[in-house]
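Severity: low
Component: inverse-folding endpoint
Summary: output formatting inconsistent between runs
Steps to reproduce: submit the following structure tokens with default settings.
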């Protein structure tokens, strides 16, 4: 692995409270070791976040058993970063060291649905769903090295490269009245063991112990505060961070054949986690963290940027050896889907290049509906924790199923983003409430049309309103 750390621009302070490179006091002799340790920091970043997400989930149910959400994600949903408000989530943490599992899928008609499979390193492995015309019935899920397929056809065998894996299924909700119908459909996702359960490998318990050890000061408060607060606290302690990465990656080793092209890169986290390496680990953690935050804040180089200021990536969930992008996604969009399934356009700044902030009202005008075969939505999130926030009308997004939207005679749709509700009826109907501080927007296109995948589509810019115009609307 090259000692060149990353291409993100971290020569200046990348965000409030983060490190300046000149403060690291790098020396020529220490630079290679620090660069390698910083790569290890970035490489391992998703593991504690996945561990935290699993620990939070397992408070509500065991492994190899679905947990079903009966309502759409809202301001109280803090377990997963940047959730959507379009689909009901049904999730299950798999421990395949206990043996293969049989997944049962019901007949689902006239709505979008998806069951994706992610490995422990957040790599998308495969999926079944409506876009793929996947048939209902039973599918066999097997872990690494398990050859017992019990006569299942190859098309119904799902092979996962890590024994610990995550399924976070989506079921589209058509409208508020449809929520219960969608929920009862999800209840028909079930898992059962192929054979009598084998003794677990211990990896699950090790991961849970790593998380518990780092939330010991106030475990309930930390687990309830969300993954961003957890990873921020953990990365401020380089030794515990590197030890967690070393222990988790040893218990659940990566598979070079899925999502990782650079199979020659083996992190040295185990040796670097020794206390006598503190002089290396402290600046390395600061450097790695600065690079991730730069990428997450939009000052880095990950992905593509449209002329209208939206960022997106056509390699989401298929990271190969782009560990920086993998880390950035784990922080801001854990569980994201590959581009053939969904494209995520993210805006953190407006058309003037200013950070999105509720102190300034903004508008977005779509000349026509975005090109999505399944559905589209525009969601708003609190930048401080990457989740939804309370608002007076409990609206977290606007999309193709939002009732009461007012379109212009030419078919365009203007969305108003502000803290205060506009007074004009048409504008109030199209109001997406903002919070007083920093926020970001995500435009989701599920089953994107070919023009999107060909980079021919650009969302309209997020336009700031002048103080005069804003005053007439509030």
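Observed output (run 2 of 3):
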């Amino acid at each position: 692995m090259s000692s060149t750390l990353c291409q993100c621009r971290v020569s200046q302070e990348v965000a409030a409270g983060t490190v300046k490179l000149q403060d690291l006091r790098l020396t020529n002799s220490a630079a290679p070791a620090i660069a390698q340790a910083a790569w290890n920091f970035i490489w391992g970043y998703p593991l504690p976040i996945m561990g935290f997400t699993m620990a939070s989930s397992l408070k509500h149910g065991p492994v190899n058993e679905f947990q079903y959400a009966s309502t759409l994600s809202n301001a109280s949903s803090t377990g997963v970063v940047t959730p959507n408000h379009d689909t009901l989530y049904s999730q299950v943490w798999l421990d395949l060291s206990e043996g293969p599992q049989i997944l049962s899928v019901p007949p689902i008609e006239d709505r979008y649905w998806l069951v994706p499979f992610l490995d422990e390193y957040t790599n998308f492995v495969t999926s079944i769903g409506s876009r793929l015309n996947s048939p209902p019935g039973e599918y066999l899920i097997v872990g690494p090295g398990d050859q017992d397929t019990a006569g299942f056809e190859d098309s119904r065998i799902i092979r996962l490269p890590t024994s610990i894996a995550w399924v976070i299924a989506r079921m589209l909700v058509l409208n508020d009245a449809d929520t219960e119908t969608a929920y009862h459909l999800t209840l028909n996702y079930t898992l059962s063991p192929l054979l009598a359960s084998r003794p677990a490998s211990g990896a699950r318990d090790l991961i849970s112990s790593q998380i518990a050890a780092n939330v010991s000061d106030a475990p309930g408060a930390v687990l309830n505060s969300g993954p961003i607060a957890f990873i921020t606290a953990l990365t401020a302690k380089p030794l515990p961070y590197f030890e967690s990465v070393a222990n988790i990656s040893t218990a659940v080793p990566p598979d070079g054949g899925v999502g990782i092209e650079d199979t020659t890169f083996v992190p040295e986290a185990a040796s670097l986690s020794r206390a006598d390496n503190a002089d290396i680990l402290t600046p390395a953690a600061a450097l790695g963290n600065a690079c991730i935050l730069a990428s997450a804040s939009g000052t880095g180089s990950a992905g593509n940027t449209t002329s209208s200021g939206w960022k997106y990536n056509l390699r989401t969930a298929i990271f190969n050896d782009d560990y920086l992008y993998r880390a950035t996604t784990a922080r801001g969009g854990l569980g994201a889907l590959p581009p053939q399934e969904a494209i995520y356009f993210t805006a953190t700044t407006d058309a003037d290049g200013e950070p999105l902030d509720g102190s300034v009202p903004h508008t977005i005008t779509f000349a026509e509906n975005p090109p999505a075969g399944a559905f589209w939505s525009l969601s708003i999130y609190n930048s401080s924790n990457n989740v939804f926030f309370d608002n007076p009308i409990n609206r977290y997004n606007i999309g193709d199923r939002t009732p009461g939207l007012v379109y212009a005679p030419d078919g365009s749709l203007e969305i108003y983003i502000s803290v205060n509700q506009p007074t004009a009826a048409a504008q109030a109907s199209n109001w997406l409430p903002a919070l007083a501080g920093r926020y970001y927007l995500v435009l989701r296109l599920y089953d994107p049309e070919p023009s999107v995948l060909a980079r021919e589509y650009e969302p309209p810019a997020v336009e700031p309103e002048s103080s005069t115009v804003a005053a007439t609307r509030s």
